[in-house]
Amino acid sequence: MASAIPMPLLNTYHRRIQVGASRRRLEDARACLEKGRWIAAIYLGGYAVECALKAYICLQEGKDDFRETQVYQQGAVVGRAGHNLQTLYNAAGAPVLRSMFNPHGEFHRARQLVVKTWYPQDNLRYSHRSGKRAEAEAFVRAVEMLHGFLLELQGER
Protein backbone atom coordinates (compact mmCIF):
# COMPACT_ATOMS: atom_id res chain seq x y z
CA MET A 1 0.00 0.00 0.00
CA ALA A 2 1.43 3.35 -1.03
CA SER A 3 1.77 5.96 1.65
CA ALA A 4 -0.14 9.18 1.25
CA ILE A 5 1.78 12.22 0.15
CA PRO A 6 1.62 14.74 2.99
CA MET A 7 -0.06 18.01 2.11
CA PRO A 8 1.79 21.16 3.11
CA LEU A 9 0.22 22.79 6.12
CA LEU A 10 -2.01 25.69 5.23
CA ASN A 11 -1.11 28.92 6.99
CA THR A 12 -4.58 29.91 8.11
CA TYR A 13 -3.18 33.17 9.51
CA HIS A 14 -2.09 34.43 6.08
CA ARG A 15 -3.97 37.48 4.86
CA ARG A 16 -4.93 35.92 1.51
CA ILE A 17 -6.29 32.82 3.25
CA GLN A 18 -8.35 35.03 5.58
CA VAL A 19 -9.82 36.96 2.62
CA GLY A 20 -10.75 33.72 0.86
CA ALA A 21 -12.16 32.20 4.03
CA SER A 22 -14.27 35.31 4.63
CA ARG A 23 -15.85 34.92 1.22
CA ARG A 24 -16.54 31.20 1.67
CA ARG A 25 -18.04 31.64 5.15
CA LEU A 26 -20.40 34.30 3.80
CA GLU A 27 -21.43 31.92 1.03
CA ASP A 28 -21.94 29.22 3.66
CA ALA A 29 -24.04 31.56 5.79
CA ARG A 30 -26.25 32.37 2.81
CA ALA A 31 -26.64 28.66 1.99
CA CYS A 32 -27.63 27.90 5.57
CA LEU A 33 -30.13 30.75 5.47
CA GLU A 34 -31.71 29.27 2.34
CA LYS A 35 -31.99 25.87 4.06
CA GLY A 36 -33.57 27.25 7.22
CA ARG A 37 -30.48 26.60 9.34
CA TRP A 38 -30.79 29.86 11.25
CA ILE A 39 -28.18 29.33 13.98
CA ALA A 40 -25.65 27.99 11.47
CA ALA A 41 -26.21 31.03 9.24
CA ILE A 42 -25.41 33.33 12.15
CA TYR A 43 -22.41 31.30 13.27
CA LEU A 44 -20.83 31.18 9.82
CA GLY A 45 -21.69 34.81 9.07
CA GLY A 46 -19.78 35.86 12.16
CA TYR A 47 -16.74 34.01 10.88
CA ALA A 48 -16.99 35.90 7.58
CA VAL A 49 -16.65 39.19 9.46
CA GLU A 50 -13.89 37.84 11.71
CA CYS A 51 -11.78 36.73 8.74
CA ALA A 52 -12.37 39.99 6.84
CA LEU A 53 -11.30 42.00 9.90
CA LYS A 54 -8.14 39.94 10.38
CA ALA A 55 -7.22 40.39 6.72
CA TYR A 56 -7.84 44.15 6.97
CA ILE A 57 -5.67 44.45 10.09
CA CYS A 58 -2.86 42.64 8.24
CA LEU A 59 -3.18 45.02 5.31
CA GLN A 60 -3.16 48.10 7.56
CA GLU A 61 0.05 46.95 9.24
CA GLY A 62 1.72 45.71 6.05
CA LYS A 63 1.83 42.12 7.32
CA ASP A 64 1.02 38.93 5.46
CA ASP A 65 0.50 36.86 8.61
CA PHE A 66 -2.01 37.83 11.29
CA ARG A 67 0.35 36.48 13.98
CA GLU A 68 2.74 39.33 13.11
CA THR A 69 0.19 42.07 13.84
CA GLN A 70 0.34 44.22 16.95
CA VAL A 71 -3.00 43.04 18.31
CA TYR A 72 -1.87 39.41 18.06
CA GLN A 73 1.63 40.09 19.40
CA GLN A 74 0.12 41.86 22.42
CA GLY A 75 -1.92 38.74 23.17
CA ALA A 76 -5.28 40.49 22.79
CA VAL A 77 -6.60 38.03 20.19
CA VAL A 78 -4.82 34.79 20.97
CA GLY A 79 -6.84 31.63 21.50
CA ARG A 80 -10.55 32.07 22.11
CA ALA A 81 -10.12 35.85 22.23
CA GLY A 82 -9.20 35.68 18.54
CA HIS A 83 -12.91 35.46 17.80
CA ASN A 84 -13.80 38.62 19.72
CA LEU A 85 -15.15 40.91 17.01
CA GLN A 86 -15.15 44.00 19.22
CA THR A 87 -11.42 43.61 19.90
CA LEU A 88 -10.79 43.08 16.18
CA TYR A 89 -12.85 46.18 15.27
CA ASN A 90 -10.86 48.22 17.77
CA ALA A 91 -7.60 46.95 16.25
CA ALA A 92 -8.78 47.72 12.71
CA GLY A 93 -8.01 51.41 13.07
CA ALA A 94 -9.46 54.79 12.21
CA PRO A 95 -11.18 54.28 8.81
CA VAL A 96 -13.17 51.33 10.07
CA LEU A 97 -13.87 52.92 13.43
CA ARG A 98 -15.12 56.19 11.93
CA SER A 99 -17.49 54.36 9.63
CA MET A 100 -18.71 51.78 12.09
CA PHE A 101 -18.91 53.79 15.27
CA ASN A 102 -20.91 56.73 13.93
CA PRO A 103 -23.94 56.27 16.21
CA HIS A 104 -26.29 57.50 13.51
CA GLY A 105 -24.99 55.30 10.71
CA GLU A 106 -26.17 51.99 9.34
CA PHE A 107 -22.69 50.49 9.73
CA HIS A 108 -22.82 51.23 13.44
CA ARG A 109 -26.14 49.42 13.80
CA ALA A 110 -24.88 46.49 11.73
CA ARG A 111 -21.69 46.26 13.80
CA GLN A 112 -23.65 46.34 17.05
CA LEU A 113 -25.95 43.55 15.89
CA VAL A 114 -23.11 41.34 14.69
CA VAL A 115 -20.91 41.84 17.77
CA LYS A 116 -23.76 41.41 20.24
CA THR A 117 -25.21 38.32 18.57
CA TRP A 118 -22.03 36.47 17.68
CA TYR A 119 -19.85 36.59 20.80
CA PRO A 120 -19.59 34.52 22.92
CA GLN A 121 -19.90 31.85 20.27
CA ASP A 122 -20.69 29.02 22.64
CA ASN A 123 -24.29 30.22 22.59
CA LEU A 124 -24.31 29.41 18.87
CA ARG A 125 -21.83 26.56 18.58
CA TYR A 126 -23.52 24.34 21.14
CA SER A 127 -27.09 25.54 20.78
CA HIS A 128 -29.79 22.92 20.54
CA ARG A 129 -32.34 25.41 19.25
CA SER A 130 -32.95 26.13 15.60
CA GLY A 131 -33.13 29.90 16.02
CA LYS A 132 -35.42 32.41 14.39
CA ARG A 133 -35.65 33.22 10.73
CA ALA A 134 -36.01 36.99 11.17
CA GLU A 135 -33.00 37.11 13.50
CA ALA A 136 -30.84 35.12 11.07
CA GLU A 137 -31.93 37.19 8.07
CA ALA A 138 -31.16 40.46 9.85
CA PHE A 139 -27.80 39.11 10.97
CA VAL A 140 -26.76 37.93 7.51
CA ARG A 141 -27.83 41.29 6.00
CA ALA A 142 -25.63 43.05 8.57
CA VAL A 143 -22.76 40.68 7.81
CA GLU A 144 -23.11 41.33 4.07
CA MET A 145 -22.87 45.07 4.67
CA LEU A 146 -19.85 44.86 6.97
CA HIS A 147 -18.09 42.21 4.90
CA GLY A 148 -18.54 44.20 1.69
CA PHE A 149 -17.22 47.35 3.34
CA LEU A 150 -14.19 45.58 4.78
CA LEU A 151 -13.30 43.92 1.48
CA GLU A 152 -13.79 47.20 -0.39
CA LEU A 153 -11.31 48.89 1.96
CA GLN A 154 -8.84 46.18 0.96
CA GLY A 155 -9.47 46.54 -2.77
CA GLU A 156 -10.98 43.06 -2.76
CA ARG A 157 -14.53 43.69 -4.04
Description of the molecule:
This protein is mainly alpha-helical. The chain has one domain: Nucleotidyltransferases  domain 2 (Four Helix Bundle (Hemerythrin (Met), subunit A)). The chain has 8 helices and no strands. The longest helix is centred in the first third of the chain and has 24 residues.
Task: Offer a quick outline of the entry.
This protein is an all-alpha fold and 157 residues long. 64% of the residues lie in helices and 0% in strands. Helix 1 runs antiparallel to helix 2 and helix 2 packs parallel to helix 4.
Residue stretches low in confidence (pLDDT < 50, at least 5 long) are none
CATH class: Mainly Alpha
The main sheet comes to: none
- The gross shape turns out to be globular
The CATH architecture term is Up-down Bundle
Spatial gap, N to C terminus: 46 Å
Structural class: mainly alpha
Topology, number of strands: 0
| Helix fraction bin | 55-70%
Q: How many distinct helices? A: 8
What is the CATH T-level topology?
Answer: Four Helix Bundle (Hemerythrin (Met), subunit A)
| Rounded mean pLDDT score | 89
Radius of gyration: 16 Å
Counted up, domains total: 1
Order of helices and strands: HHHHHHHH
Q: CATH-wise, what's the superfamily?
A: Nucleotidyltransferases  domain 2
SSE topology sketch:
Elements: H1 15-34, H2 38-61, H3 70-73, H4 85-92, H5 94-100, H6 106-118, H7 122-125, H8 133-153
Helix pairs in contact: 1-2, 1-8, 2-4, 2-8, 6-8
